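pasting for ref
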Amino acid sequence: MPTLQEEKPNTARQRYWLPALSKDPDTRSIQVGLLWTVLIHLLLLLLAPQLFRNEFSPGRFVQPGSTVPTYEVEFAPNAFASKPPQPMHFVETNPDANNNIPDKTDNFAAQNQQAAQPVPDKDSTLRMPKTEGKKDFENDSQIVSGRLEKPEPAPTAPPAQEQQASEQPAETQPKLQVPLPGFLKSQGDNPDTFGTESVKFPEPSTGADKHVAGDRNSHDLAGAGAKSAQTVRPQPLPRPKLTQVRPAILKERPTGVSNAGVVGVDAHFSEFGDYLQELIDIVQIQWERILGSSATSPKPSTHVMISFRLNSKGEIAEILKVDGDAGEYGTRASLSAIQERAPYRAWTKEMVAVLGEDQVITFTFYYW
């Protein structure tokens, strides 16, 4: 006979809350995205102290005994520091040449200049003008020689003399000359006495010794007029002056450039070039003063070469090298010419940015 299964007693079960996803696909995708966002942010918060530590040691995240290779990279100090470009070749230009910018050159100077000479050499590819100087002599920085004194202006006649000379008329008729009125006449038989008689002339006297026919209003060419004319003398033309550039020994160059004009050399203006030209002129003047005030002089055909370090303050920071065959006096005179006028003018900010804090400069003094 059929039997009925006994019903089990109802027991209470413990349930937990779980986030239920929506059955709608759009809503379910939004819920999944929010869930992953929360999990990623929690993971970043936990790992941030390890990732952003100031000190990083190689192998921090490498497990002990792992075969993953590690690399150590060491950077040299100032490996990527930008070094200022070295200056180009300095040349001394001709102040009388035109201020033209050359097409291409490695020279820098106190002004822009283009290579030229009065008589051009056809089919020449040189960029230095023709010069007459010493053979087998290395001097590629100077193309003209002169004096450092400024040219004197041409003398001019005083304005009073110029006006007097312009007002002096050209005369051909002499001036009327009339003696004093009257003359002396002796009368009587007695030799111990004499008598006088005064005779008046119709014309007033001019104080002359004898009568000369002429124009009363005319100037006397032989008297005061001639003397005043002698004071106005023609002024001579001014003598040609040398170019205001330091004296130097030029190199013998039999050929020159193909451009016609005043003697010049290809060079670009540079603020450092203007500074060097001023420095060279100062040393040259001081050197000539030292030699001029001394009773002795070094042997001819000798030289002294001095290399020194000049800093941005215009100070001679260090004498690097002194070499030559001019003897003790020639060496001391050359060193004094450089050191006695220091410190020189300080560099500008633009010069420091290009040249750095110092530069090595070499001077060569020639005794002839």
